[in-house]
């Protein structure tokens, strides 16, 4: 993996960094100008990340040669679900075809590190939890990934189940989609063999953070840099996200976006599908409310002082609806 082959001779380090700086500025300009809707913000992130990752691939291929086998670079977290806000961190992984091979592992871990560095330069900060394709846990051959998923599901540890749920929100961004689809099938097959997995998934996401008190007041953060603000992600969004993920696992729905999971549910879940509009409106209002936030660290915390009385009333309704939905889904799955 050393030595340039001359196919990308123009791309010296200075030129490459200039390109990344231009992409960063383009990202800022686009996000400042678009309407705060799920569709428009997602389109910006997809365009910026596509340009960045393709530039990295061009650089890597010029220096190390073409990828030695098929691979898929996939997004996780809000990126995998298509629910990114104006600021987003990195959550991603990579799978390459076949069994473990030292040369292949070196190539793809190197590619993962180049992607992490480039995405950081265009405005996506590194994931604090190290859920990135530059780490061996999230960059493996397809055979290693299969073994890893089975290990996570067959070993009764909270962290293992959490990793499985994180993986299930993956969406292929660039590469061979079948590689990721086959891995999600491994999860479905193990669930067929081990029906107790559903309850373990439920238990792992069952702690729903309260956001409304006994007297109808918002329950805000009481300490730290976000004191006085509402944890919108944990309180309002995650009951919808976690609930639909559980149903997608149970119904063998491959799609990761929460809205798409709603749409792919069978008519049997008519009562669940009635909550889709609440989640859609909540996502769009979150983008509207958080447009002026200047850093990723504060993007999920809402200053309620900026909301009108009607917006506060709507937010309380969506919080209650999300908690009601999660409870409904939990009951459906536990009663079988």
TrEMBL record:
InterPro entries: DUF294_put_nucleoTrafse_sb-bd (IPR018821), GlnD_Uridyltrans_N (IPR005105), NT_sf (IPR043519). One of its GO terms (molecular function) is [protein-PII] uridylyltransferase activity. Residues 197-329 form the DUF294 domain. Pfam families: DUF294, DUF294_C. Residues 37-156 form the Protein-PII uridylyltransferase N-terminal domain. This is CBS domain-containing protein. The lineage of its organism: Bacteria, Bacillati, Bacillota, Bacilli, Bacillales.
């Amino acid at each position: 993996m050393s030595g340039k082959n001359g196919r990308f001779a123009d791309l010296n380090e200075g030129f490459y960094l200039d390109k990344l700086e231009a992409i960063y500025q383009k990202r800022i300009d686009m996000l400042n100008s678009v309407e705060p809707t799920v569709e428009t913000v997602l389109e910006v992130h997809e365009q910026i990340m596509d340009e960045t990752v393709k530039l990295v691939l061009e650089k890597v291929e010029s220096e190390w040669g073409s990828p030695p086998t098929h691979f898929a670079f996939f997004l996780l977290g809000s990126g995998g679900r298509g629910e990114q806000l104006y600021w987003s961190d990195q959550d991603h992984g990579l799978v390459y075809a076949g069994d473990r091979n030292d040369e292949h592992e070196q190539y793809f871990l190197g590619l993962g590190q180049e992607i992490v560095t480039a995405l950081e330069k265009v405005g996506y900060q590194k994931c604090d939890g190290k859920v990135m394709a530059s780490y061996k846990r999230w960059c493996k051959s397809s055979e290693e990934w299969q073994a890893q998923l089975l290990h996570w599901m067959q070993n009764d540890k909270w962290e293992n189940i959490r990793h499985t749920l994180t993986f299930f929100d993956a969406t292929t961004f660039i590469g061979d989609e079948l590689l990721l689809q086959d891995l999600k099938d491994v999860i479905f097959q193990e669930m067929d063999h081990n029906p107790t997995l559903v309850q373990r998934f439920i238990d792992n996401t069952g702690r729903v953070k309260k956001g409304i008190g006994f007297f109808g007041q918002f329950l805000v953060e009481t300490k730290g840099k976000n004191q006085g603000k509402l944890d919108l992600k944990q309180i309002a969004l995650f009951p919808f996200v976690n609930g639909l993920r559980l149903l997608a696992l149970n119904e063998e729905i491959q799609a990761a976006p929460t809205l798409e999971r709603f749409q792919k549910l069978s008519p049997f879940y008519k009562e669940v599908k009635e909550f889709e509009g609440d989640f859609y409106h909540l996502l769009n209002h979150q983008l509207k409310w958080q447009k002026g936030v200047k850093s990723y660290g504060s993007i999920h915390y809402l200053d309620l002082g900026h909301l009108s009385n009607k917006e506060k009333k709507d937010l309380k309704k969506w919080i209650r609806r999300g908690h009601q939905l999660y409870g409904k889904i939990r009951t459906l799955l536990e009663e079988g």
